[in-house]
Amino acid sequence: MNQEEEFSGEDFEWEEESPFTYSDRYLENDPATPKQVGLWKRSLKWRRRIFVIEIFMVFSQLLYLYSTQIVQQYIFQTLAREALSNTPNYTAPNESICLDQDHIVSATGNNDSIIQIQQKANTLGIYIEVIALVSSAILSVIYGSLSDIVGRKPILVLCLSGLFLSSALQVAVIEFDLNMNVYLLIASALNGLTGGGATTIGVAYASIADVTTKKWRTLRLGTTGSAFGFSKALSYLLAYYWINDNGCYFKGPAYLMLAIGFVGISYTLLVPESLPPKEKRKEGGFKKLADGFKVFFIPSRSGFSKWWRIWVCVIVICIEFLCVIGITQVLNYFLHNKPLEWSYDFIGIYGSVTSITQCLALIVVLPLLIAIPIPEAYSNPFIILFAVVIAITTNVMMATLRTTWEIFLAGTVQTLQQVAFPAGRAILAGLVKPEDFGAVQTLATSLQLLTSVGSTVLFNKVYHPEAEVNGHHYNAGIVFWITAGFWAALIPLILLLFKKRNDDAIELPESMKYEKLN
């Protein structure tokens, strides 16, 4: 059997079916050799394991979100108890209870007490988040590029192991009543230094890009993003129901962190590698660490038409992330304090409902948006624009509405904004060479987290419970007005992405032109 008979290109479409779209990343010589055919088949076999990375993301994000919610409320309740213990004539209840704004103000006799407690909680929260975000953002550039060399799996294992150790230290703080101003910061640094969220998300998205064609990339990134929603829903159910039912006695809920981490690491060790062994041994070594920077700072590497789009895409992604992270930082405080004063179990219901609708947005609404018969080049920018309109509208609603059903309605509709993230990532992946996926996706995530450092500080500083203090009115809804403004600022940038590229028709490498095989 000759070469043409063994592997003809007649039934093979690079644009639609090949995991090697736009690049001969894995093919060094003739793509029809039996050795390369085996490599191609092996990659397709990996591709059929559809939810491998999605399941990893569920464990990773569940551990992160659950531990974050437990620690956030532990800080607030601990500071509240300390403040009340210093209040003259205050008698602590015989059993553990969850302290809310009414209880604190009633015990202290003034509104200023809740403002001070919230400010202290926000300040410690800022330090915790900034340490993790900055260290993760900086080191993810190295870890992401290393994943292009050593493979995705070792880096994912490292990230989840670091998060597990960080959670173990948080459990120790709660169990042994350690100084949370010291040990929670150490736990945060440990998470960031082992990769943190930037590396985890960037490398996970790179794994998806490794094995997914352009046609399915947006949808696949959407299913990966839905793991965030599922994890968030589960974390709300586990954390807030448990906290509320046992009167904010945190020791029991804290130990669940260790169980989640252990199961997650065990699963990740079984996850198949998305890069073939040959790619991991590719010559070039640590020279590839600079590849991500080259894409961003050397226009000739990808062409000017792609280069400025890469930057526009990254800026859009970063501002979207700034808005989402900023609101996430203060949302639970907003719901627990005035004007709403929801109980922790009701916050858990709200969080679970909105998280489920977030999943539905990514696995139901996103495919419907993709199916709209508009030119492919405009599909993802249209999806992002749709998300921006939703985000602006619902943030204005959250800023002005005050009844329970109105907040539920606005919160559930707001989850539709999540469709912007896979669309943006898909645009970015389509603008770079596959060999740069790890470096570029992780560097983009790194920039996201650096942006979220600013949002963490901004929103924690701006947010205050609704109260009148010394003639000054604190408006809790101002954070949503700020968010709506940021989303609105994205519209001109998104319109730039509708501009047609001169190089939309991708020219395949010579080694992939199957005319030579016929």
UniProtKB/TrEMBL annotation:
It comes from the Eukaryota. It is a multi-pass membrane protein. The chain crosses the membrane at residues 50-67, 124-143, 155-176, 182-206, 218-242, 254-272, 310-335, 347-370, 382-401, 478-498. Residues 53-502 form the Major facilitator superfamily (MFS) profile domain. Its main location: membrane. It holds the Pfam family MFS_1. InterPro entries: MFS, MFS_dom, MFS_trans_sf. GO terms for molecular function: transmembrane transporter activity. GO terms for cellular component: membrane. Keywords: Membrane, Transmembrane, Transmembrane helix. It is found in: Membrane. This is Major facilitator superfamily (MFS) profile domain-containing protein.
